[in-house]
Automatic annotation (TrEMBL), chain A:
Source species of the chain: Propylenella binzhouense
Single GO term (MF): oxidoreductase activity
Gene3D superfamilies in the record: 3.30.465.10, CO dehydrogenase flavoprotein, C-terminal domain, Uridine Diphospho-n-acetylenolpyruvylglucosamine Reductase, domain 2
Domain FAD-binding PCMH-type, first and last residues per copy: 1-219
Source superkingdom: Bacteria
Pfam families, sorted: CO_deh_flav_C (PF03450), FAD_binding_5 (PF00941)
Protein name: Xanthine dehydrogenase family protein subunit M
Length: 325, 161
């Protein structure tokens, strides 16, 4: 590991100032330290942001605000989250291990790097890690790579479970930079890879994630997160689905669907949602919505199994949600 | 070394304040093993994937390989060496012996500290839920059945989180 200097920030402005001068934020450290151990990240100055505040879950009349420095375990243990946002709790409880959930923060989770094998192998060409060098996964070991939202330059998936659940809960991220705070819909926070896979979000230089906002309207929907992986626990998603549905007399009033493990960013399924709304919440509409999930999917060899897996995962999630109602 | 690359830190380890000078690159795991000579905490993968290095930080279980020692400044760490009190084994240690919950023993300190974390965090559940809560601790010898039995003996039989 390269030598680096380490400082703690006492408040957000000190952290933002340091980042404008080239410092790298560290929160839980669980992704960044892996990358530093593997020689993929080599910061000169680490700015520890654990002391800047923004930790904890606060309930309000019109929603809940989760501080960016809140540990994943704390979010999943929060009584309001458990009662009103089951999909968030289920996504977190299927994330990593109990140890990692005690360390990992919400902000760090949303910004964790892809698990693409070549991104994490310093010797391999990779447009995301070293722009312009090419994409080793395109013709290579791409079993875990994306079938949706990819470009000729990058087919890496976004690995976060939490982000998928948050997109289906209409979450917004609260950002704070040199010019103050702004709020962005989480779905629009992530960029598609296009020809710049190294730029993953709309975060500006120096900007911090300070929180996540969940509107209370989203809590009125029944919700569920289903994760499919190579082993039963402690593994990243091959496909996952977050669903939130409001029904009245058996008819779907509102639907939110997002999938993970299959796309270059947490992927909202607008067409599948539209196929559900206004129809009885039954097998017919569910099967149609699930089939639409794979529209536009582009398999690239070893990840072709993800297309039927995606459809089956969406169908299973909706059927379970229907059964639970 | 240039300014800021090595720092003086004080951590409370098993109830005792310890001050050491560490390079910023030193993980908490390496500081415990190599600087404080507490070699009960094991290094498996160094990447958060095996749980051999599990310790409690302010009463919550973490993997000590994925945090820098400098980040633990002012905090309290409990390692496997800190579990036994007044010469008698912690109930989890006794249950692991009782149930033969290890073969080579390499994963054992991590397994026990992870289970100690379930206790101190108030986590509990069905056998399946405990298996899931313990899935961050890999046992290459496959002693899982006995590990679960040992933990089951100590965790109160009630549904928890
Ligand atoms: C063994 C293992 C298994 C895992 N399994 C899963 C899994 O199944 N599902 C899943 O979703 N994740 C999984 N993860 C990933 C884990 O969830 C992330 O590593 C973690 O959430 C990152 O959070 P952190 O606070 O540790 O981030 P850090 O490592 O501290 O930071 C990550 C990045 O975010 C930046 N950053 C952090 N906080 C902020 C902020 N507030 N504002 C701006 N920038 C910030 C940092 O500069 C860094 O670039 C796993 C990790 C491990 C080690
Ligand atoms: S898919 Fe993206 S991250 Fe993976 S090798 Fe290609 S460019 Fe790199
Ligand atoms: S050594 Fe820390 S988890 Fe493997
Ligand atoms: S007893 Fe050998 S690894 Fe668990």
């Amino acid at each position: 590991m390269n030598p680096f200097r380490y400082r703690t920030a006492a408040d957000p402005d000190a952290a933002i100032g340091a980042a404008l001068g080239g410092a790298t934020f560290i929160a839980g450290g669980t992704d960044l330290i892996q990358l530093m151990q593997e020689g993929i990240a080599a910061p000169d100055l680490l700015m520890d942001i654990n002391g800047i505040g923004y930790s904890g879950v606060a309930s309000d009349l019109d929603g809940i605000r989760i501080g960016a420095l809140t540990r994943l375990a704390e979010v999943a243990d929060d009584p309001t989250v458990r009662a009103r946002f089951p999909l968030v709790r289920e996504a977190i409880e299927s994330t990593a291990s109990g140890q990692v959930r005690n360390m990992a923060t919400v902000g760090g989770n949303l910004l964790q790097k892809t698990r693409c094998l070549y991104f994490r192998d310093r010797a391999a060409p990779c447009n995301k890690r070293a722009p312009g060098t090419g994409c080793s996964a395109f013709e290579g070991q791409n079993r875990i790579n994306a079938v949706l939202g990819a470009s000729a330059h990058c087919i890496a998936t976004h690995p976060s479970d939490l982000a998928v659940a948050l997109v289906a809960a209409d979450a917004e991220v609260i950002l704070r930079g040199p010019a103050g705070e702004r709020t962005v819909l989480l779905e629009s926070f992530y960029r598609l890879p296009e020809d710049r896979p190294d730029i993953e979000t709309v975060l500006e230089p120096g900007e911090l994630i300070v929180g996540v906002w969940l509107p209370i309207a989203a809590a009125a929907r029944r919700s569920r997160y289903v994760k499919v992986r190579d082993r039963a626990s402690f593994e990243w998603a091959l496909a996952s689905c977050a669903a939130a549905i409001a029904t009245d007399g058996g008819e779907v009033l509102e639907a939110r669907l997002a999938v993970g493990g299959v796309a270059t960013k947490p992927w909202r399924l607008a067409r599948s949602e539209a196929a559900l709304v206004g129809r009885p919440f039954g097998p017919g509409a569910i099967r149609e919505a699930a089939a639409l999930a794979a529209e536009g999917a582009e398999p690239r060899g070893r990840n072709a199994y993800k297309v039927p897996l995606l459809v089956a995962t969406v169908e299973r999630t909706l059927m379970e949600l229907r059964g639970a109602g | 070394m240039p300014d800021g690359q090595s720092l003086d830190i004080t951590i409370t380890v098993n109830g005792e304040a310890r001050t050491v000078v560490v390079d910023t690159r030193t993980t908490l795991l390496d500081a415990l093993r190599d600087r404080l000579h507490l070699s009960g905490t094991k290094k498996g993968c160094g990447l958060g994937q095996c749980g051999a290095c599990t310790v409690l930080l302010d009463g919550r279980r973490i993997v000590s390989c994925l945090t820098f020692a400098v980040m633990a400044e002012g905090k309290a760490v409990t390692t496997i060496e800190g579990l036994a009190q007044d010469g008698s084994l912690h109930p989890l240690q006794a249950a692991f012996v009782e149930h033969d919950a290890f073969q080579c023993g390499y994963c054992t300190p991590g397994q026990i500290m992870s289970a100690a974390g379930l206790l101190s965090e108030g986590r509990n559940g069905t056998d399946d839920e405990i298996r899931d809560l313990m899935s961050g601790n890999i046992c290459r010898c496959g002693a899982y059945t006995n590990i679960l039995a040992a933990i089951r003996d100590v965790l109160p039989r009630e549904s928890g989180r």
